[in-house]
Amino acid sequence: MGRQPRAGGRYVQPIDSTGAPVTPDTAGDARHGVYLLAAATQYYYILGGIDAPFLSVHITGYDAALILTSAVIQDCDHHDNDVSDFSAVAGEWLTESPTTSYIAVAGAGWAQTPSTGILTVAGGAVGGALFHFDETAAARHRLSVLVGGAGGHVRVSCHGKM
């Protein structure tokens, strides 16, 4: 069971590896969910709201130079009082890697590995990806994004269906 987005819209604000919210580079970008991600940095997009059996997560990169080492959906059942949204402790957040995972991709250098559910971006073109996952019973979900050698402007949105 996935979770529909919170009140206030589908766009998701990233947090960094310390749990600090990323500040948008302009007020206009914030209203439309675009944030500047720095090179060689780990980010998390917390996916939350009301329960929904089907969930999709859409990521778009607006800079051709953007490199993502990995972007994956992760789940956790532990209470947020015990495990933080930005925990990197092995075993607290687990990566969704169904052998039938589906990630739609567009843009040169944007690629997904069906057997692992991992999205990578080699740079070279503006592009995007849409993760589809369903029937997960986890209490909490996040999109974990590790930026490689070049950062860029990224938008993430999330939507659930009943």
Description:
The structure is a single chain. This protein is mainly β and 162 residues long. It has a single domain (2-161), classed as Jelly Rolls (Sandwich). It contains one helix and 14 strands, in the order ββαββββββββββββ. It has one helix at 27-31; strands spanning 2-3, 14-16, 34-37, 42-47, 51-52, 54-61, 68-76, 94-95, 102-106, 110-113, 118-121, 127-134, 140-147, 152-161. Residues 1-8 have low confidence and may be disordered.
End-to-end Cα distance? 10 Å
Largest sheet: 7 strands, antiparallel
Backbone shape: globular
Contiguous uncertain segments of 5+ residues: 1-8
For this structure, the quaternary state is single chain
Write down the overall mean pLDDT.
86
Strand content: over 45%
Radius of gyration: 15 Å
Count of discrete structural domains = 1
Strand-and-helix sequence, N→C? EEHEEEEEEEEEEEE
What structural class do helix, strand and pairing data support? mainly beta
List keywords for this structure.
162 residues, mainly beta, Jelly Rolls, seven-stranded antiparallel sheet, 14 strands
Q: What does this entry show, briefly?
A:
The chain is mainly beta and 162 residues long. The chain has one helix spanning 27-31, and strands at 2-3, 14-16, 34-37, 42-47, 51-52, 54-61, 68-76, 94-95, 102-106, 110-113, 118-121, 127-134, 140-147, 152-161. The chain is globular.
Chain-wise SSE layout:
Elements: E1 2-3, E2 14-16, H1 27-31, E3 34-37, E4 42-47, E5 51-52, E6 54-61, E7 68-76, E8 94-95, E9 102-106, E10 110-113, E11 118-121, E12 127-134, E13 140-147, E14 152-161
Antiparallel strand pairs: 1-5, 2-4, 3-14, 4-13, 6-12, 6-14, 7-8, 7-11, 7-13, 9-12, 10-11
